[in-house]
Structures are given as C-alpha cells and as structure tokens.
Amino acid sequence: MENQTQLKFFIVDDDVFCAKLYEQFLNNINCNDIVYFDNGKDCLLNLNQNPDIIFLDHNMDDLSGFEVLKKIKRYNPNIYIVMISAQENIKTAVDALKYGAFDYIIKDSNVTDKMTQVINKILVVKDEIRKSNPNLIQKLLGLF
Fold first, then answer.
1. Rounded CA gap, 13 and 106, in Å?
2. Most-buried pick from 17, 96, 108, 132 (CB within 10 A)?
3. Spatial distance between the Cα atoms of 139 and 37, rounded to a whole number of angstroms
4. Distance, CA of 100 to CA of 93 (rounded, Å)
C-alpha cells in the first residue's frame, strides 16, 4: 500500500491558525510534503505541482470553497479534495460531495482524528485503484 509520507498535500484556508494546526498535525504523522495557501486563487495557480490531497476550507473570502473545488476537479479529477467547514450543515456537506469532494469534515476538536481517517480512506482507495487497474496507466500513456 502507498505510504502516507509520500503524499503531497495542499492546505487551503484563510484562517492561518487552522492551517498551521493542520500542517503541524500532518508533520506529526510524517507527512512533510505540504504547501499552504491562504486563498483559493493561489491554490488553483499551483495545481501543476500535482497534489494528491487538498484540505480545502469551505468558507473563504476570495473564492468560495465550492468554486475552488469545481475548478480543481475540472483541472484534474484525480485529486482528492477534502472540504473542511466550521458549519455543521448537511446541505453544504451534500453539495461538497456532489461537486466531487472525497469527504467533508467539520472543524471541531476532533478535526485531526477525522483527517487521519480520511487520509487512511484515500490510501485504501488509491491502493484498490492501483490493484484493479495495474495496466490502465500504461494503456492511457500508450494513447499519447
């Protein structure tokens, strides 16, 4: 199974305190390839860095989390996006998943536990995709 330490993370949150908390947490579980953006535009301009997982704040000033989410999915549907929101709102969660987020987590005292669970889920999914389609990537590359 792919190792979480090899994953590249983007953290996109205009709340620097929260972002630093997530970054520190990821460092603690040996994830060190982390890039932080305090707004959606900068995140979108840097998608060529090919992040595996993006922790994306729902409520930001410049572009809403949903706008950023949709643009990321158009750029590369294979990036795993986890929406993080302070609001416990079912409609927001459902919309996030509808627009292509892998998961939706609430900013609360358990946020880092939830991040761990989501990262583990993503690793399982990536592993299953690799196992079920080992030749798919070669086939796709063969088309070009």
1. 13
2. 96
3. 35
4. 11
Is the pTM of the predicted complex or chain greater than 0.70? yes
**CA 120, CA 103: separation in Å to the nearest integer?**
12
CA distances (Å), origin 5, targets 20, 84, 127:
18, 21, 15
Residue type, 117: Q
* Average pLDDT value over all residues in the chain: 89
Q: What DSSP letter does each residue of 69-131 carry, written as one string?
A: HHHHHHH-TTSEEEEEESS--HHHHHHHHHTT-SEEEE-STTHHHHHHHHHHHHHHHHHHHHH
Q: What is the pLDDT of residues 19-67, one digit of tens each?
A: 999 999 999 999 999 999 999 999 999 999 999 999 999 988 878 899 9
